[in-house]
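Look at one record.

>
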Amino acid sequence: MKFSAVNHLVKSSICRWRRALVIGVASTVLCASPALYADFSRLGQLESKGFSISAEARLLDADTGSNALLGSLNPDRQLSPASVTKAYLSAAALNRFGPQHRFTSQLVSTGNVENGVLRGDLVFEGGGDPGLTTEDLWRLVQRLQLAGVREVDGALIVSQWRFGPVECITTDRCNARTRVTNAYSAPLTSAGVNFGSWCANIAPAAAAGEPARVGLCDSQAPLVAIDNQVITRPANSGTDISAERITDERGDVLRLTGQISTNASARDVYRGAGDAAEKTAQVLLSMLNQAGVSVRDPWRVSSTQPPSSAQRLAAVDSKPLQELLLRTMNYSNNYMADVLALNLVETPQAQLRQAGQAIEAYAQSLSGHGPLTLHSGSGLTTDNRTSAHGVNVMLEDMFHQSALFPSFVASFQSPANGVMRFIRRGSPTFQNNVMLKTGTLNQPFAVRAVAGYFRTSQGRWGVFSVLVNGSGSTPYLSWPEVLDPLSLDLDAMILAN
């Protein structure tokens, strides 16, 4: 460790000890000097390992708008922010729609209802709701029944005219068109349900040696083929399940392998569908059938907007935007982020680059932001580029918007209580005085990014952003290698101010 870093650590430790013993003004005086040593000296040691860093931390003053630089490392360097991109998305969406905005999905038709029969096609018009669930679809079906529809003399059409199918721009999503072992690579559409993923529930059989019991979370009907190779094992023998969605001539197939103990709880496994709009059509048709609403013709998917003469038969609203952002940011949900970003595009059949440009346009309206390139709203690509200074400009602007800031900051995680376990580290000062969003990518090179807000020991607000990028020749970068030194650097800044 460099001498400056050691000196910094010693002075910060003395400051903490003095604050514990001294009350009042004397405490402030004794602890003023560590501000000279509150910087990114620990984090900066990653540069010697070949990693590129852009970092900046500033104090904010809500009354005057002034700020004071606490530390920086190449603050204007353009690097990949990974999922810190979602903070840009959240800010842009709140500025565009407002915290209470809801996305509406509806069933419409140009036909008339006569004696319980809809004379025409029933169209599900996807509203771009990133959090649409089967529960919402059940509400739609119930409301359709309340509208008097018992039979459809036509077809069920799923309309994704707003956007979908969306062209894949990353290897993960492109490969996922034929097979996938995760849920985050689900295809994007304005008419998706359950985050564009299939869900299988896996439970142990009554006796060891028998195949596990498997069913779909979405429906009792066999909407997707399941290749169940999960074996039930004796109690306490462990549960290890692998799942893959494969698309072939049969359509989507869920291949499940592994084992589950007889005394294990049932497990839900999510895997992205081959086509999210087609999945919605299958699930919705199954629900209509279960509710006793018969549909004469086979379902189909359309990218055509229903005519203006179409009448609404049933509708369901999404959760308010502030609640959608809480889930998007806390769980770093790539499907939700990209769907929300696509909603920012005003023209039909939006694509991810257009969504990125819509967020860029928002950021360019912020004085002093600097360059920004976004190919998606989720950050699921290393082609996104920004700087630590640019991120801080955006964070500071949101801080000063009193009507939006509560909804915005609530979507960030506290290290002490965050849903992501890997951020639960560092001193109590770091864990309880910081709200952050992280970003992680491993291919084609490592990205570890963190940005957010902090409160100092004197109650002042601050912003910080850290972007760490590797290359094809740098080693794997673990989160402790970034968070441990960063927590110490921020800890010193917090205590010194």
Summary: The CA atoms of residues 242 and 262 lie 18 Å apart. The radius of gyration is 26 Å. The first strand starts at residue 52 and ends at 60.
